[in-house]
Amino acid sequence: MIENTESTSNKWFASWFDTPYYHILYKDRDYTEAQHFMDSLTGYLNLPEEARILDLACGKGRHSIYLNSLGYNVTGADLSENSIAEASEFSNETLGFKVHDMREVCENKYDAIFNLFTSFGYFDDDADNLKTLKAIHSSLNETGFACIDFMNVDYVIDNLVPEEIKTVENIDFHIKRYVKENHIYKEIKFNADGEDFHFTEKVQALRLADFEKMMEEAGIYLLDIFGNYKLQKFFKSQSERLIMIFK
């Protein structure tokens, strides 16, 4: 549910994530912290050498590339054709990329599937969340593990910044955040290249209890829960992240 000045798309994530402006706005994300997280995560899971990892919703593949540098056989998958086209420039014998809808079961089986940095909860239909969990579960091999790294909704809502202007590469992004009908919204307005844009990110406010209910229905065994990228204990009101390990 994203709109700009010219068109409206029901699958907002398929259009906003495909624009260059999305990557400009979020260019300053802390990738060092992300790499430390992946170091900790792969160490915790004690993955075998050359393990097959699926980076689900990989974007332009930055994290897939890093995981591959650790010696793993990595596939990056994303719905955005533009992102996959850019990521594919870094392909090698043990690193590949593909356009893939996370609701669909993969052809191959993996030792680990990572869905990182709140890349879940974008669908309008709750059934699609369950379908995604089932697809992840079915795409693991018998000894495989999966990880969903989601925001901690209670922490995010308590610390929500209602409005701000963020200037990146001479573009003033006017950002408005609010909670409505169990979703967290972020409206983003800006002018670039002589044109006005208005995009709306919308993510379901899924809490641990919601995931537990869906996982039980999907036949998934939740192994562990962490509250930050250092894999420390999860606290409902204090933790920044909700990191779930399951099989």
TrEMBL record:
Keywords of this entry: Methyltransferase, Transferase
Q: Which residues form the Methyltransferase domain?
A: 53-144
Keyword Transcription regulation listed: no
Q: Which CDD domains match?
A: AdoMet_MTases
Methyltransferase keyword on record: yes
Q: Name one Pfam family in it.
A: Methyltransf_25
Q: GO molecular function terms here?
A: methyltransferase activity
According to its UniProt record, the EC number is: 2.1.1.-
Q: Which top-level group of life is the source organism from?
A: Bacteria
GO biological process: any one? methylation
Q: What class of enzyme is it?
A: transferase
The name this protein carries in UniProt is SAM-dependent methyltransferase
The upper taxonomy is: Bacteria, Pseudomonadati, Bacteroidota, Flavobacteriia, Flavobacteriales
